[in-house]
């Protein structure tokens, strides 16, 4: 079956009036391909704040209306914008170790969080190659707060960040791949034409635990993110060990 990296889907609903209005108001359609990618990417990175929606499998229009998102939901919005602008893109699914979310997930409920958390990035076709875009997840306010809280650290895998270059992460669009959670990845599910195809097989936090997350925990997490953005980064117990990638991830890297 041929791949289709430009089509609209239920989640990539780029014919939605709000998405079409955004593109028209910003004048993105008049830009070159590289500039279109950069404009959509910068919008999703900084104008859609880092935060936690009610579900991973939300339509792009809903994410836009929320005004915030995490890796999966912000990725859906970015893909919809890119396809609306005629830029081929695809979805790549992973899991990350839950340690990457420590500090955002309150300590009281952290032991109850799944060990492996669904994660994704967007792959965009540009100048004949596929680039990996992940650096849009944290908005600049959150990233700046983490840099200020850990001025002497380069490696950090907590608070929603997973990077070995915290003070100068590769997050700005420059025609190259970008990353901000890569060091937390512990499983690769491969490439999918759309987020719809991925979520048809991989979902998380269903049933009662999902209900508690949607109604209570995610709002708690969003308040903590807002506090981080204001410069109040909570302390994670356990010292330096809990600020680094899980040992299993480190061992895989050394063996590679």
UniProtKB/TrEMBL annotation:
<dbReference type="InterPro" id="IPR038765">
    <property type="entry name" value="Papain-like_cys_pep_sf"/>
</dbReference>
<feature type="domain" description="Transglutaminase-like">
    <location>
        <begin position="32"/>
        <end position="133"/>
    </location>
</feature>
<protein>
    <submittedName>
        <fullName>Transglutaminase superfamily protein</fullName>
    </submittedName>
</protein>
<dbReference type="Pfam" id="PF01841">
    <property type="entry name" value="Transglut_core"/>
</dbReference>
<dbReference type="InterPro" id="IPR002931">
    <property type="entry name" value="Transglutaminase-like"/>
</dbReference>
């Amino acid at each position: 079956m041929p791949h289709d990296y430009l089509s609209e889907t239920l989640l990539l609903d780029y014919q939605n009036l709000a998405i079409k209005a955004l593109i028209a108001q910003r004048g993105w359609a008049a830009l070159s391909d590289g500039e279109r990618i950069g404009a959509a990417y910068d919008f999703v990175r900084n104008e859609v704040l880092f935060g936690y929606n009610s579900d991973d499998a939300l339509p792009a229009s809903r994410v836009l209306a929320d005004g915030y998102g995490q890796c999966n939901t912000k990725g859906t919005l970015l893909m919809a914008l890119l396809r609306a602008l005629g830029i081929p893109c695809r979805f790549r699914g992973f899991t990350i170790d839950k340690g990457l979310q420590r500090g955002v997930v309150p300590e009281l409920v952290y032991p109850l969080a799944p060990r492996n958390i669904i994660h994704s990035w967007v792959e965009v076709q540009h100048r004949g190659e596929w680039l990996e875009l992940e650096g849009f997840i944290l908005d600049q306010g959150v990233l700046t707060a983490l840099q200020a809280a850990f001025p002497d650290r380069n490696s950090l895998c907590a608070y929603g960040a997973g990077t070995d270059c915290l003070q100068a992460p590769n997050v700005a669009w420059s025609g190259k791949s970008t990353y901000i959670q890569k060091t937390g990845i512990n499983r690769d599910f491969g490439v999918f034409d759309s987020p719809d195809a991925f979520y048809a097989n991989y979902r998380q936090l269903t049933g009662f635990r999902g209900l508690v997350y949607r109604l209570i925990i995610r709002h708690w997490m969003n308040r903590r993110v807002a506090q981080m953005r204001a410069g109040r980064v909570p302390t994670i117990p356990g010292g330096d060990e809990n600020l680094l990638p899980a040992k299993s991830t480190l061992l895989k890297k050394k063996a590679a």
